[in-house]
Amino acid sequence: MNSNDSNFPAVNALAQAQLGDDLCRLFHGRGGLFSGYEHICLDWFNPVLLLTSFKELPESERQSMVADIEAVWQQCHGDKPFNLVFQYRNAGQTITDVVAGEVPEKHIVTENGAHFLVHLLRGQNHGIFLDMANGRKWVKAHAKDKKVLNLFAYTCAFSVVALQGEAAEVVNMDMSKGALAIGKQNHLLNDFASGARFLGHDIFRSWGKLTKLGPYDLIVADPPSNQKGSFVATKDYVRLLRRLPELLADNGEVLLCLNAPELGCDFLMKQVEETAESLTFVERIDNPPEFTDIDEQKSLKVLRYKL
Questions:
Q1: I need a labelling partner for 23 at 20 to 30 A (CA). Which of 134, 169, 205, 273 fits?
Q2: What CA–CA distance (Å, rounded) separates 305 from 279?
């Protein structure tokens, strides 16, 4: 496989892209639709391109990819500065390099009218998950006048869009106080100085606090799929589901999220059926088209349930 090939698909995607202010995935090799490129993704975090490889590349191949991307950039997007970050990820190892240009010291990106702080040079989690764009869009459209609980809140993107959708109040909970600190900054970036709470607690030790602040009209649960000391989906989702229904108001709704390629919708639906039978399945929210997967059971699952 050589990126000098005229059909190098990430380069073709970049050539065809209409790059605006909003962040987006340009090429999703992880979806398995491009044979030989399953390890490559290309994202736009305005004003920076992020090229990610999920396997180690020979230096010659990496340089070839970068040269091809730069050539297409100059040809198709030459009115913008060329800023490119390369990240290699494998088995918990992450190596990140600024290959061309620069990354803003305070890097703020936009999505659907909301602003978020991102950090491309710090580890694998950049501050916002691009494949969850439709989930955020759904919450914004359905949050009006609702009390929202945002579990595993991370940097609180769901909270920001809920308040944009005129939610009455949002309670954010995450055991990472650092992530919540960025979440608070995200709220201020979007002119929300009030309307949200930020609780830096372990969810499984905080049911009393959550119950006292409830009930909630909408709960979003977007846990990590396999994070030791925090949440492992195969054993912890059932613990979460046992308690969620009692936190809901009458006719309340839940978005249950799962991003584990090895676990399909059946895993989560069976756990709900066995553990939280008062919840009724409504729909699976589609992923953005740029995240199309050869096997949709391996992609992000966002399942909507109603009490």
A1: 169
A2: 6
Block residue for tokens 């990240």: 87
According to the model, what pLDDT value does residue 225 have?
Answer: 83
Structure tokens at 18: 């209409």
Query: At which residue do the structure tokens 């499984």 appear?
Result: 204
Where in the chain is CATH 3.30.750? 9-103
Question: Per DSSP, what are the bridge partners of residue 90?
Answer: 93
Stated pTM of the model: 0.94
Q: How far apart are CA 117 and CA 178, in angstroms?
A: 13
Joined together, the tokens standing for residue 107 give 């890097």
Given this model, what pLDDT does residue 231 score? 87
List of long-range contacts for 69-73, beta carbons under 8 Å, 24+ apart: 69/10, 69/11, 69/14, 69/42, 70/100, 72/11, 72/14, 72/15, 73/14, 73/49
User: Both tokens of residue 230?
Assistant: 């925090």
Q: Mind listing the pLDDT tens digit for each residue in 123-141?
A: 889 999 999 999 999 999 9
Q: Which CATH superfamily is domain 126-306 in?
A: Vaccinia Virus protein VP39 (3.40.50.150)
Give 9-103's CATH code, choosing from 3.10.20, 3.30.750, 3.30.70, 3.30.420: 3.30.750
pLDDT the model gives residue 1: 40
Provide the pLDDT for residue 8. Answer: 80
Instruction: Give, for 238, the enclosing helix (H) or strand (E).
Output: helix 233-247
Compute the chain's Rg from CA coordinates: 20
- Per the rule left: phi > 0, alpha: psi between -120 and 50, beta: everything else, 30 is alpha
Domain with CATH 3.40.50.150 in the chain: 126-306
